[in-house]
Amino acid sequence: MPELPEMENYRKLLSQHIINVPISDVIVNREKSINMETDAFSKALIGARVVFVERRAKYILFHLHDGRRLLLHLMLGGLLFYGTEEERPDRNTQVEIAFGDHTLYFIGLRLGYLHLLSVKESEATMGKLGPELLDRRMTLERFTGLVKGRRGALKSLLVNQHVMAGVGNCYADEIAFEASLLPSALVQNLTTESIARLYESIQKVLTEATEIGGYMEMPFMTGDSVTGSYNNQCNVYDREGEPCLRDGGTIIKTELSGRKVFYCPDCQHDQ
Questions:
Q1: Where is the Formamidopyrimidine-DNA glycosylase catalytic domain (predicted)?
Q2: Among 59, 103, 128, 233, whose Cα sits 20 to 30 Å from the Cα of 162?
Q3: Do residues 244 and 186 both lie within one domain?
């Protein structure tokens, strides 16, 4: 599932190509991916312009010139591709939005969705989310306040969108590894030093992953050599049975509260 780095990468790329370009056509191949009848959705968008692209947690918000917003959540398996008809990937698309001779293809929206909302509706959805971990206002002091009083496993805390927004399975495991903490470490038992180490690890992992395009499997457009560059940078995620790059131990895969977890049992600890 795309997380903060992947969606921030998409936000940057979208902002470079679709701002103020009138929407010339809309094709909906799966009506369940949108929140209204296909004809109404298309009619509302054709002629509209995107004036601003915002990322919040794992969401993308396309701010339209009339004040409404398109809210995108890719969920598991969702991808974006921007290009001409000749460049389009050989994949099923659920929604296509044309900006002149280029089209934004929404791929893999089996669980994901693209909803046209009012400002009030979109703000109600965003209001349920916790703070952004890379926001300049996210200091160690504020982060410590988010952690203090919480209970349960570290990974469960990191992926809780109501507490802190944007982290999912992959980066929760990468952050825990960077902090030398087990994903199963109990939050209520973390020392002040462990929390500080966790905060620094969050900043480092998310910043680095964002700068190199996250771990998406497909480029955003022809010639895009950035998107997905983090695929080869993961230390533990999807590396079951492989040697730990820090100490040579063997990466283990297990489950925690129904989520898959990857970690090194030799160099990750409860504190």
A1: 2-106
A2: 233
A3: yes
